[in-house]
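Anyone else keep sequences and structure tokens together like this?

Example one:
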Amino acid sequence: MNVLVTGITGFIGSRLATRLVEQGDEVYGLVRHSSERELKRIEQIVPKIHLIEGDLVRFHSVLSAVETSDPNIVFHLGALTPVRLSFDDPYPYIGINFDGTVNLVHSIVKQSPNTRLIAASTAEVYGWQPSDRAIPESALLNPASPYAVSKAAADQYIQMANRIYHLRGSVMRPINSYGRVWESGFYTEYLISKMLRGETCYIGAPDSIRDYMFAEDHVDAYMDVAKSERAIGGVYNVSPGNPVTNAELAKKLSGLTGFKGKLVFGSYPPGYPQRPQSQDPPYLVLDNTRISREVGWHPRHSLDEGLEQALRLWNRKTA
């Protein structure tokens, strides 16, 4: 198949593209003008894929990418994602996450109406919920940050377009993923990088409960949905069902790394852009029943297994 991936240089997009190449698909990636460093995640597959220079916020740029790639499937993972930074500067999030999705939807409708769209939303669209129970897809969206609002708007736009414009779109709402290398700005990777160097670790919201998913399980979900005709038009939580507090995750990693340094609970790292405490949902765990039942996706890694693999990846890539 011809496959177009937006966000192909990103954390999950690069791994998804690698899998698609391995299974023999013709892979196209929409990228803004990028330095070699920004292409580092996909350097092994660059000779085997087609990169199209463009910008999600420009409609004719996106339309041209769809025309050039003539895709059977578009995986839309391109987004601006640092949640905390969105509080101080929300405008780029609206442009890239919402406007970019609208541009992609209408490029597909105009140029390639039989194309499937599989788009990344986020668990953040649920925000505050009335009870500490796993959240189903039917829950009211209650986004708690400018980032989450931009993603919720894009999420809803795709669902509207499925009905009004006969888009063949599927929406994925994944929980926090881990398994990055080279990056330490996300909670799990922050802990790994600090603990391996023996440096003090700050756990800003120790009692907040989250679900953490290993990257390869995340990619599996996209691959499984792409193979499922039943998933067309569907909305799916992607979550392994292993809720843990931030403090518990830090203690797990401390044991796995042999960390002997200091854990500081209730404080963020000095200079770290803080998410307003009143806006941080204390419980964000998703119900994965629908994707398991309708698509057959199940996580292959327990939390301990995933963390062990993440540590091996980090050590190998940064050695």
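And example two:
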Amino acid sequence: MTGAASAGSAGSTPLIVRPVKSARIATVIAAAVLIAFVIIAIVLPHSSDGVTFTTADQFGIGGTGLLVVIGILMFRRPRLRADASGVDSRGFMGTYRHVEWDLVNAVEFPPKVRFARLVLPGDELIPLYAVQRGDRERSVSAMQRLRELHSDWLSGSIRVDPSNPTTGGGEQPPPQKPDLAPGA
């Protein structure tokens, strides 16, 4: 979590979270894999296995290594941004999702689950891949801030200005909930 995300009131400063531990591990592993594939591509034509390797084979091995490295670096992609307008989340494959606070029933991080999640109506779960158990204190602060934003939304202390959805804290009355009484 960045320093700007932890300061200020709930409606004024957006919460921005990125995975730290898994991103560092992915970077180290990607570097090791890239080095290994480059060494293999260089040493390959000089082996005495009785097989002739060409420059095309070397480029093929290097290209394969590059694809593996790109796959490993996907663990650096998750992002989370939450503010008065809702939660923006990006997953490993770059899938982006915006969820407005009025759709969020709960923000939870159950034991033995690796990622935090949003609970939507119908028990739909949206995993928040940027908030990971391995990040420990960063995840705890991110969850506290997310729950604070959600609580502020529920209490009506933050609302989105309809003319500018990127700002929160407008002085608007909370939206009226439909009457769901049976027989109405």
